[in-house]
Write the structure tokens for this entry.
Amino acid sequence: MSTSIRNATTEDAAQILEFIRALAAFERAPDAVVATEQALIRDGFGKHPFFHCLIAEYDGEPAGFALYFFNYSTWVGRPGIYIEDLFVLPQFRRLGIGRDLLKRVAAIAVENGCQRMQWQVLDWNTPAIDFYRSLGAEFMDEWRTVRLNSEMLERLATGGDGHAEDKTA
Amino acid sequence: MSTSIRNATTEDAAQILEFIRALAAFERAPDAVVATEQALIRDGFGKHPFFHCLIAEYDGEPAGFALYFFNYSTWVGRPGIYIEDLFVLPQFRRLGIGRDLLKRVAAIAVENGCQRMQWQVLDWNTPAIDFYRSLGAEFMDEWRTVRLNSEMLERLATGGDGHAEDKTA
């Protein structure tokens, strides 16, 4: 009984999408996933991939995944790693697979000269929060995450100048 | 009296570092910046840059900057833009320069097929929060940001297996 971790290939696209959907369901957003296998292949496995993905297998069965990309810290002056998704299927939990995945991503970070690894967790996911704390992780709770979604993004990109808001920043 | 926005070049490295330091001071972490001009040139202007940077000038004077990179949404199945730094020097505020910078980054996001633009703001920075809200931004307050810093990252990367924590995830 053992865990192995390997880089994903285009042939894993269907499995990755299944993991993404299972994670979204766990995160109480089962209908949020509109990604397709084709999109994952295009964006993750081309010449300049937007993300990297590791697959964990337990006795040869797909058990979980970690999907990450490089971000940048202007304070440190170095790239870091941001983990977008970390997930282990329910039937493979409590076997250390989540830790194995995080450990592998941490090793990749160190190899690439990164001094930080960052991710996000839902505030009600207490088991994960406790686990991350046990690794010595810090919680950056003074920072709020701000997002402009599709419609508002387009409105800002194409909108005229001279709004009242112009004077506020 | 007008604002122009252009892509940064290696010749802007000293100015970018000055902006980074001024932003860190504003964010109450004046000693947090260990980045150097050399690091910014290496990481931002090579063959595979880790970040992109825009400089705003007001009547030819450097007035502010936006530093961003591409992230990835596995739900949307598309890259997005993450803005690491957005800053306008105090003497150039209330001229709409922050909005002009955000607007330009939003246009770059749309050109690249992104459906999301994301960043973070300190919870006490009320003027910025109000400004972002006026643009229709959402605050993802159920998500906590988790970070492993240098020492803990290295410990995880190189640490042995079989810890008690192995069983928690």
Q: What stands out?
A: Chain B touches chain A through 96 residues (CB under 8 Å). The beta strands of chain B are 3-7, 52-58, 61-73, 78-88, 116-122, 138-139, 143-149. Residues 113 and 127 of chain B are 30 Å apart (CA to CA).
